[in-house]
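Protein: DUF1468 domain-containing protein
Species: Pleomorphomonas carboxyditropha
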Amino acid sequence: MRQSNAIVAILSVLLGAVILWLASDLTHFDEAGVPGEAFWPSAIAWLFIALGLVQAAEVAFAPSLHAGRTVDLHSAPVRIAFLGAAIALAFAVLLTYFGFIVATAVFVPALMLLMGARSPIQITLTTAGVIAVVWVFFVLIFNNELPPPSLFE
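Structure follows.
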């Protein structure tokens, strides 16, 4: 377990550094002090770095904390987490080619089914609610466009 934690700590710090590097040419704040397009990627990158350093400190200063434990990558919770990551990746691909509404109409029910929701009414209402709330806030209030489908351009 100690070796796995050390690998995860190193990968977390490296991922944070790569995100910071990729966001380096984006603006963090505009002249009015409004957060720019690099704000959230940078915040997430610093979070990755901080959590990686915390995990590295745990490996270095508390080596007996997880002594004797093993990692089971085939357990049901881990498989569910991997499936959730695959659903998120599919959402990103769908978002690129089919736009926000279609991608979200697929993503929300898939994620709800993964989490154990089985009521068709609940799934339908939640999906419609998520799409409606995001649309109202971004299109009507913030005057931003939702990602359009690039497949049909």
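Remarks: The radius of gyration is 20 Å.
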